[in-house]
From TrEMBL:
Pfam families: Acetyltransf_8. Pathway: Siderophore biosynthesis; mycobactin biosynthesis. This is Lysine N-acyltransferase MbtK. Acyltransferase required for the direct transfer of medium- to long-chain fatty acyl moieties from a carrier protein (MbtL) on to the epsilon-amino group of lysine residue in the mycobactin core.
Length: 195
């Protein structure tokens, strides 16, 4: 008998694209898929290029064992398509680089390699993640810390309303500490829809 996967915690229909959803990461089912993503050159900033499946399993077992860091698998029409991590910055190295405020939530995102490129897909994934985070009434601000060399994600962050704060030193990288409040995201969303 096949074990049921966790139910989505968030689902959004995007006209012309389909349904994007987020569900809790399942260690037994999702590690192999994630390993196939993080070991590709485009995912170099994820820091797992040379990881084995066992290494990825160990990392996500560590995440699952904490009360302050959660991983979610994103699906596009029911197929694995992206990963989102949500974490409490107060328990993370980034929290030692600024004054963490109540309502801050940290986020990491990795989009899986497309079988066929879909225009606007990454933006729709990012909006789905931001909508899910701000759907939590306790979240006031999203915190990200992309590698300073990762200019693609910095541009996407900016498009979604993030403002760069400062370059910070983390254990594994120099990073652009950036913030996006609920209002900044709403303003950026309106501009993106208009433009």
């Amino acid at each position: 008998m096949t074990r049921a996967l966790p139910e989505p915690t968030y689902r959004r229909f995007v006209a012309g694209l389909g349904t994007l959803s987020l569900r809790p990461f399942d260690l037994a089912e999702d590690v192999t898929t994630l390993h196939s993503w993080v070991t590709q050159p485009y995912a170099r900033y994820w820091g797992l290029l040379t990881a084995s499946v066992a290494d990825v399993h160990a990392e996500y077992l560590r995440i699952a064992s904490t009360a302050h860091h959660r991983a979610f698998l994103g699906e596009h029409d029911g197929r694995p398509a992206f990963l989102m991590e949500r974490y409490d910055p107060a328990y993370d190295a980034v929290g030692r680089t600024y004054d963490v405020a109540p309502g801050d939530v940290g986020m990491h995102v990795l989009v899986g390699p497309p079988t066929a490129p879909i225009p606007g897909f990454t933006g729709a994934v990012f909006e789905t993640i931001m909508d899910s985070l701000f759907g939590d009434p306790l979240v006031d601000r999203v915190v990200v810390e992309p590698d300073v060399r990762n200019v693609k994600i910095q541009a996407l962050n900016e498009r979604m309303g993030f403002r760069k704060h400062s370059i910070v030193t983390l254990p594994d990288k120099q990073a652009w500490l950036s913030f996006c409040t609920r209002d900044q995201y709403a303003d950026a969303h309106r501009m993106n829809e208009a433009g």
